[in-house]
Amino acid sequence: MKMLINVPESVVADALRGMAAAHPELTVDVENRVIVRRDAPVAGKVALISGGGSGHEPLHGGFVGPGMLSAACPGEVFTSPVPDQMARAAAAVDSGAGVLFIVKNYTGDVLNFDMAAELAEDEGIRVAKVLVNDDVAVTDSLYTAGRRGVGGTLFVEKIAGAAADEGQPLERVEAIGRQVNENSRSFGVALSACTTPAKGSPTFDLPSGELELGIGIHGEPGRQRRAMMTSGEIAEFAVHAILEDMPPRNPVLVLVNGMGATPLLELYGFNAEVQRVLTERGVTVARTLVGNYVTSLDMAGASVTLCQIDEELLRLWDAPVKTPGLRWGM
Amino acid sequence: MLDADFFRRWMAATSASVDREAERLTALDSPIGDADHGSNLQRGFRAVTATLEKEAPDTPGAVLTLAGRQLISTVGGASGPLYGTLLRRTGKALGDAGEVSEAQFAEALRAGVDAVMTLGGAAPGDKTMIDALVPAVDALDEGGFAAARTAAEEGALATTPLQARKGRASYLGERSIGHQDPGATSSALLVAALAEAAGE
């Protein structure tokens, strides 16, 4: 597999150096792997910190900036960062109002963020945590590590980020983050596996003419494999899986997310089908976002995330945001 | 009595053993994980050996606390915090005595294993490192290092028919059955290195 890299070992560091060059509004510590908004700490405001394995760009580093994250901590490809990274980030961004960790529900991420919280608290920093676990494809939560955090992470980071930007206190920003997670559900499909730089070959074998339904974002196989379906059939399968788990009540935010190697032309066509199915199911769509936001390296495919919202959450979603990956209103 | 030098030998023996077995650990991690357990622990214990040489801590508690902190800062993933906590909490429980008895160490190691269970949320039978560590601590109380080694190795072998309920292997559900758990296997290496450090 050809890749636009130097050597696999330096992929994360190279990307951070490039990010630093492209975004002077961010402070990128390449050696310690921490991305911080340059104006941090912002007086009187809660700071949001997220992180995880690399390979999901623009998540999380691309969401650092006013109205969203204060800092992000990238690990090795698909490997969670170490606690020192988040502790360093917390020290850099805490204004005294406390920090909120936004953690995708994977064992490694949870453990490293928990240990980072201990380190930060030892330094007198108040830390709260929101765990994101929106993937409906993991059905047997009692006998697994629980549902995975995927596309809903973007909704949590944006909406909690807006609440923090308004100057809301830590307890309130945490509660809003939890509310967004509890009201978010995702379902993803893969048309191809992805290739990690270290391995150099696809993580699983997916013949042409077949697709994986119910995938995560680490190149792992999904819930089931089927003969290739049309965009409309995939939209029906994904939306039904989500609504089965979360019956529609309120209007929703829709994220139609590319996994990395699916063109926007196809994603917009897929979005048309998602909107059709939602209309058929009587679901009101408040806002829609289409693009590559929570990716899995070069995997082809897409995920759908729905977040049920009220007026307050919609107002926070619409609030200004200025990051490399998401930008409106300022 | 066990002094700081004994615990440095334990860490060095673990590092050598992980070096020898890294490929096997990664191979065990391939069908039910993400094929990096051997290389992650190898990186971690090499860093432990280097930092112990550099900082030269002079009590048993200080050796293990430093080793644990180094693993946490180096490894990432789930195994970094879990192994790091095991050593750090064991070290903390030993306090700042210059020498400790085997019984004191057994008690401290139990505190370390308890901390791992609290952190990871795993219980015996979930197909994790706990399945090697709990039998090892029980055996250490009664029969010393050699008995602990045997118990840990048997515990690791006994994970093969289990279905994983924690960690990334748990997403495989029933497909995790029939594979020996890589974490329990590396835990057995850690316990075996204790017997080696004691010359047993």
Account of the protein in words:
Chain A: Keywords: Glycerol metabolism, Kinase, Transferase. Chain A: This is phosphoenolpyruvate--glycerone phosphotransferase. Chain A: Its EC number is 2.7.1.121. The complex is a heterodimer of chains A (330) and B (200). By secondary structure, chain A is of the alpha/beta class. Chain A is 32% helix and 23% strand. Chain A has helices spanning 11-22, 83-93, 107-122, 152-165, 170-182, 231-245, 264-280, 311-318; strands at residues 26-29, 34-37, 47-54, 71-77, 99-104, 127-132, 184-190, 210-213, 224-227, 252-258, 285-291, 301-308, 321-322, 327-328. In chain A, β5 (99-104), α3 and β6 form a beta-alpha-beta unit. In chain A, α2 (83-93) crosses α3 (107-122) and α4 packs antiparallel against α5 (170-182). The mean pLDDT of chain A is 94. By secondary structure, chain B is mainly α. Chain B has one domain: DhaL domain (Serine Threonine Protein Phosphatase 5, Tetratricopeptide repeat). Chain B has a two-stranded antiparallel ribbon. Chain B is globular and about 50 Å long. The mean pLDDT of chain B is 93. Chain A binds chain B through residues 75-76, 78-84, 106-108, 111-112, 114-115, 138, 140, 143-145, 148, 199, 216, 218, 220, and chain B through 34-36, 40, 72-78, 80-82, 84-85, 119-120, 163, 165-168, 170-171, 173.
Task: Pick out its properties.
heterodimer, A: 330 residues, alpha/beta, Rossmann fold, Hypothetical Protein Tm841, Chain: A,domain 3, 2 domains, 8 helices, B: 200 residues, mainly alpha, Serine Threonine Protein Phosphatase 5, Tetratricopeptide repeat, 7 helices, 2 strands, DhaK_1 (chain A), kinase (chain A), glycerol metabolism (chain A)
Could you state the CATH homologous superfamily of chain B? DhaL domain
Give the integer mean of the pLDDT values of chain B: 93
Instruction: Give the class of chain A from helix and strand content and strand pairing.
Output: alpha/beta
Radius of gyration of chain A: 19 Å
Basic shape of chain A: globular
Number of strands of chain B: 2
Percent of sequence in beta strands of chain B: under 5%
Oligomer: heterodimer
CATH superfamily of the largest domain in chain A: Dihydroxyacetone kinase, domain 1
Count the domains of chain B. 1
Low-confidence sequence ranges of chain A: none
Subunit structure (chain A): Homodimer. The dihydroxyacetone kinase complex is composed of a homodimer of DhaM, a homodimer of DhaK and the subunit DhaL.
Pathway (chain A): Polyol metabolism; glycerol degradation
Keywords (chain A): Glycerol metabolism, Kinase, Transferase
InterPro entries (chain A): DhaK_1, DhaK_dom, Dihydroxyacetone_Kinase
